[in-house]
């Protein structure tokens, strides 16, 4: 027997180890639920959580393959159960019908609280309700919509100039990095009333350090979801956890400095100036300052940073994929360019700045095809490809499957956008027309089928309006910049479809763009 073991290959031993872990996981689940022959029904087990590691490079496509076989399934894991679904009825159940029984939960809070704090995207219950009430009102105001729209338009025009100048000089661009800077400048201005100016490269050292630390901290927080030993690393203060602690310190120092400065600015003696402030921080200070004048700086830091976190990467990712799809589908870009010129009443010779200024709410609301193209992009490349909720007490899903207290239920916007049973035989195709009626008017789908913006009580109507208008207002100037240089041959070399962040310039905007492992050449 000893001889046989020594002759085993490393791959065989690894496979055997995974098998043992899978069996142990299965037994743990069965024993926890009282045996195999119980009355409860559970989704089919199609693998273990260890399969996710093996498929990490194509994780969301791996989920998609599994969902084509089962609308709802389990991946076996030690401890809590993990259920995955692409069934809109189940999504509606956990996000709306039985909303009070599903939430972020302790596990998500532990993973994210160092950066998210007690902000709205990390908490449940009364804390969530209080922040949602304040934020929903502010996001619905006309003043904030006008302010945020102007900020997005200004930075989109600035970025379009940079792209156009680099294209004219035949200079390569890391386009996604430019988008990340543009959205950071926009979101930070809307949230804090302060322009970091990272896009132009003229940002102060303090602002640049904050932006870099913020990006690093977000990445380190994400790593906690796949690193089972992150708490050990945090205790020992080593590796990514040591780096995260340093980045959080930089982020907090910068955030608290500006929150305190703004609170002082808006003290009782300067209340008349506060009324003219349109940024979110000023509004939250007004709404949360006690009658005695006491300001909860930690509360303000958490809610504002959550808005920055939610808006920055999601907007940049959506725009990157949208512009990439415009390169692959020049006929779509031509339709949008024509629609934008007509809606904005901009002549052929209008400059980028003049065109951007003409993008009023009225003009954007006329751009149904642009809205459809952006929505179609988010269907195929959602900013959040996988999301989860923790079950707070035993439950039965609409499909009859049981969920135990503490189980995690995942729903998958990326996979759902590719399901033929939801979108038809052409589900894999990029076709904006699927969102338009016979008159060319945009028609939304059920938020439980198209889940890019969440659904149920956790969706903010005002925030979704802001997101829609921000994306449209940011996208249109690029298409204007590109429409002046039409008729080129395009060659796209996509070296790694599995990467879930990519982008490109609009048609005719550039010569060579390098985005991670995806190279786009326009000749």
From TrEMBL:
Q: Which UniProt keywords apply?
A: Iron, Membrane, Metal-binding, Oxidoreductase, Transmembrane, Transmembrane helix
Q: Which molecular function GO terms apply here?
A: heme binding; iron ion binding; monooxygenase activity; oxidoreductase activity, acting on paired donors, with incorporation or reduction of molecular oxygen
A Pfam family recorded for this sequence: p450
Q: Where are the transmembrane segments?
A: 12-31
Recorded hits in InterPro entries, A to Z, give:
Cyt_P450, Cyt_P450_E_grp-I, Cyt_P450_sf
Looking at the record's lineage, which domain of life comes first? Answer: Eukaryota
Q: Say which family it is in.
A: Belongs to the cytochrome P450 family.
Record's protein name? Cytochrome P450
């Amino acid at each position: 027997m000893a001889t046989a073991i020594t002759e085993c290959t490393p791959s065989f031993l690894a496979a055997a180890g995974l098998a043992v872990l899978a069996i142990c996981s299965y037994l743990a689940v069965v024993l926890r639920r009282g045996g195999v022959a119980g009355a409860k029904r559970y989704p089919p087990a199609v693998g273990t959580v260890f399969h996710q590691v093996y498929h990490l490079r194509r994780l969301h496509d791996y989920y998609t393959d599994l969902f084509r076989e089962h609308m709802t399934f389990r991946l076996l894991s030690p401890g809590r159960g993990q259920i995955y679904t692409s069934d809109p009825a189940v999504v509606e159940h956990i996000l709306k019908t039985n909303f009070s029984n599903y939430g972020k939960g302790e596990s998500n809070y532990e993973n994210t609280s160092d950066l998210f704090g007690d902000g709205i995207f990390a908490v449940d219950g009364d804390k969530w309700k209080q922040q949602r009430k304040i934020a929903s009102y502010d996001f619905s105001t006309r003043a904030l919509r006008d302010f945020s729209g102007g900020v997005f338009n200004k930075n989109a025009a600035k970025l379009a100039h940079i792209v156009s100048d680099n294209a004219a000089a035949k200079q390569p661009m890391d386009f996604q990095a430019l988008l990340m800077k543009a959205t950071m400048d926009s979101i930070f201005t809307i949230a804090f009333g302060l322009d970091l100016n990272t896009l132009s490269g003229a940002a102060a050292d303090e602002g640049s350090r904050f932006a870099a630390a913020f990006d690093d901290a977000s990445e380190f927080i994400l790593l906690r979801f796949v690193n089972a030993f992150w708490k050990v690393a945090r205790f020992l203060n080593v590796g990514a956890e040591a780096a995260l602690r340093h980045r959080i310190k930089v982020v907090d120092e910068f955030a608290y400095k500006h929150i305190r400065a703004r609170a002082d600015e808006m003290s009782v003696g300067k209340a008349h100036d506060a009324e003219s402030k349109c940024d979110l921080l000023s509004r939250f200070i007004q709404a949360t300052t006690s009658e005695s004048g006491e300001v909860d700086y930690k509360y303000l830091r958490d809610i504002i940073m959550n808005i920055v976190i939610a808006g920055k990467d999601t907007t940049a990712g959506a725009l990157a994929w949208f512009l990439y799809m415009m390169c692959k589908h020049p006929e779509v870009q031509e339709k949008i360019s024509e629609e934008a010129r007509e809606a904005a009443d901009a002549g052929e010779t209008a400059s980028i700045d003049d065109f951007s200024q003409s993008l009023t709410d009225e003009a954007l609301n006329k751009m149904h095809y642009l809205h459809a193209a952006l929505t179609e992009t988010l269907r195929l490349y959602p900013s959040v490809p996988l999301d989860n909720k923790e079950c707070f007490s035993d439950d039965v899903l609409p499909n009859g499957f049981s969920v135990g207290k503490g189980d995690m239920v995942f729903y998958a916007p990326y996979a759902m956008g590719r399901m033929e049973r939801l979108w038809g035989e052409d589900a894999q195709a990029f076709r904006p027309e699927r969102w338009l009626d016979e008159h060319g008017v945009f028609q939304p789908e059920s938020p439980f089928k198209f889940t890019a913006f969440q659904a149920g009580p956790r969706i903010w109507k005002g925030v979704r309006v802001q997101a829609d208008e921000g994306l449209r207002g940011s996208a249109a100037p690029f298409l204007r910049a590109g429409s002046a240089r039409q008729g080129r041959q395009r060659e796209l070399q996509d070296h790694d479809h599995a990467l879930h962040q990519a982008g490109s310039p609009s048609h005719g905007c550039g010569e060579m763009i390098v985005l991670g492992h995806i190279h786009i050449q326009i000749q």
